[in-house]
Automatic annotation (TrEMBL):
This is PTS system N-acetylmuramic acid-specific EIIBC component. InterPro entries: Glu_permease_IIB (IPR036878), PTrfase_EIIB_Cys (IPR018113), PTS_EIIC (IPR003352), PTS_EIIC_1 (IPR013013), PTS_IIB_1 (IPR001996), PTS_Sugar-Specific_Components (IPR050558). Residues 114-454 form the PTS EIIC type-1 domain. Keywords: Cell membrane, Kinase, Membrane, Phosphotransferase system, Sugar transport, Transferase, Transmembrane, Transmembrane helix, Transport. It catalyses: N-acetyl-beta-D-muramate(out) + N(pros)-phospho-L-histidyl-[protein] = N-acetyl-beta-D-muramate 6-phosphate(in) + L-histidyl-[protein]. GO terms for molecular function: kinase activity; protein-N(PI)-phosphohistidine-sugar phosphotransferase activity; protein-phosphocysteine-N-acetylmuramate phosphotransferase system transporter activity. The active site is at C27 (phosphocysteine intermediate).
Length: 454
């Protein structure tokens, strides 16, 4: 049995067997499990498994941090070991009632923001590709690096520019489809609603004495309109006779939602998106060191609560409004502080297992994937987590003061983010990165920590 299969088997035992699984899934770095009975979980055993660098519980979901790429492999191996799959086991009435009661009392804000994030998470690969391609173009345009490459190969740069900007050309459509998927509507109808808001023909229509603006409100308007569409579609499905529902539902949904969108929701979305873009830019431009320190220093506590997911539309709005994102480089410093803290712990600790966890988590931490360091190293030790946040605050303050910005929305951080930083600010970003590492190291060294025996 290979290491992945062995880890999958050990996790199944630690969570009480396959019969205790209600839902099993994974993200980039975590195995996510919801169970019927929490009393059957052996959390202590799970935390000590080789290959598990951390454990966290969010709502009713138990999350085991196993690392990027590894999470999907472990979940696949778990499903292969399960005889009937997690959906094959019925939940008795008492257990179902218990699960529903627990869900009812979860923080509503956290659930809403998680739904919001689920709209954008599938777009991360496209954002990463777009940002990196744009970064490559910026390098190829610099004569001090590649000479007269830009003048010799203008067609190649043009093609790359198309590759890099394609995601933004269809952004609203993608968001419309994903919003419909998350909120239980028809995917095609979600795309249609986004298409209505983005149609160039809107500019030819005057309403209340003003010409309509195609694309006004960006993704905020799309979110509002498609959520309304899903609600209307469900209500019509419940009241229309089955024989005509297939025909009348999409017709009525389009006419009702489209009308409300043009008259009210698109203007509302426009005001909200403009307030977000202008407010965030104003805070960063005029807040300087203080705003950068606060944003970066408090970001990881927001991650722990799940409230950070509400920032995703803000990132998208900043790029749509200005063509760059000044918020992401600041927030990325939060994870950089964890790197410095982890290096300090590695030098101080005598615990062999902790050293092994740090050595495994540091490389991906440098690349911007900080969860193994946060949940496997700094957070369980207490003081190093605070020290890392302080180190990130120092880096965030400098990044804000220097007005470093990136061409990407979200989905990438750490050292790879340097490839997407706007021209002229790359070295400042790398300097801020280095300072955040040093600050996280020094704060951890000064505050200290209780070295665990186990």
């Amino acid at each position: 049995m290979d290491k992945t299969a062995a880890l999958a088997s050990d996790i199944l035992l630690g969570i009480g067997g396959e019969n205790n699984i209600q839902r099993l899934e994974n993200c980039m770095t975590r195995v996510r499990v919801e169970v019927h009975n929490d009393d059957k979980l052996d959390v202590t055993r799970l935390k000590q498994l080789p290959g598990v660098s951390g454990y966290v519980k969010q709502g009713q979901q138990h999350q085991l941090i196993v690392g990027p790429g590894k999470a999907a492999q472990v979940v696949d191996a778990m499903r292969a070991l399960m005889t009937g799959g997690e959906t094959a086991h019925a939940v008795d009435d008492a257990e179902r009632t218990k699960a529903q009661a627990k869900a009812r009392y979860k923080a509503p804000m956290s659930d809403a923001l998680r739904q919001l994030a689920n709209v954008f998470i599938p777009l991360i690969p496209a954002f990463i590709a777009s940002g990196l391609i744009t970064g490559i173009i910026n390098i190829l345009k610099r004569p001090d690096i590649v000479g007269d490459f830009a003048t010799q190969y203008p067609n190649l740069l043009g093609i790359l520019a198309i590759f890099g900007s394609a995601v933004f050309a269809i952004m609203n459509i993608l968001v419309g489809v994903n919003t419909a998927k998350v909120f239980g509507g028809s995917l095609a109808m979600g795309g249609v609603m986004a298409g209505i808001l983005s149609s160039p023909q809107l500019a030819q229509i005057t309403l209340f004495g003003e010409a309509l603006q195609p694309g006004r409100g960006g993704v905020i308007a799309v979110l509002l309109v498609v959520i309304l569409m899903c609600w209307i579609e469900k209500r019509l499905r419940a009241v229309l006779p089955g024989s005509i529902e297939l025909i009348l539902n999409p017709l009525l949904t389009t006419l009702i939602t489209g009308s409300v969108a043009i008259v009210a929701l698109q203007p509302l979305g426009g005001w909200i998106s403009e307030a977000i873009a202008h407010g965030a830019s104003l805070a960063i431009d005029r807040g300087g060191l203080l705003v950068g320190a606060v944003l970066s220093g408090t970001f990881l506590p927001l991650v722990l609560t799940g409230l950070h997911q509400g920032m995703v539309p803000i990132h998208v709005e900043l790029v749509q409004a200005h063509g760059y994102n000044a918020l992401l480089p600041i927030l990325s410093m939060a994870g950089v502080g964890q790197v410095g803290a982890a290096i300090a712990i590695l030098m101080k600790t005598r615990n062999a297992r902790l050293k092994k966890v740090i050595k495994g988590a540091l490389p991906v931490g440098l690349l911007g994937i900080g969860e193994p360091l946060i949940f496997g190293v700094t957070l369980p030790l207490g003081k190093p987590f605070l020290a890392a946040c302080l180190g990130g605050a120092v880096g965030g303050a400098l990044i804000s003061y220097w007005k470093v910005a990136t061409v990407i929305t979200f989905g990438i951080s750490g050292l790879p983010l340097a490839l997407t930083i706007v021209t002229g600010k790359v070295m400042l970003y790398l300097l801020g990165y280095l300072v955040a590492v040093i600050a996280g190291f020094l704060f951890t060294w000064l505050l200290g920590f209780n070295d665990p025996e186990e």
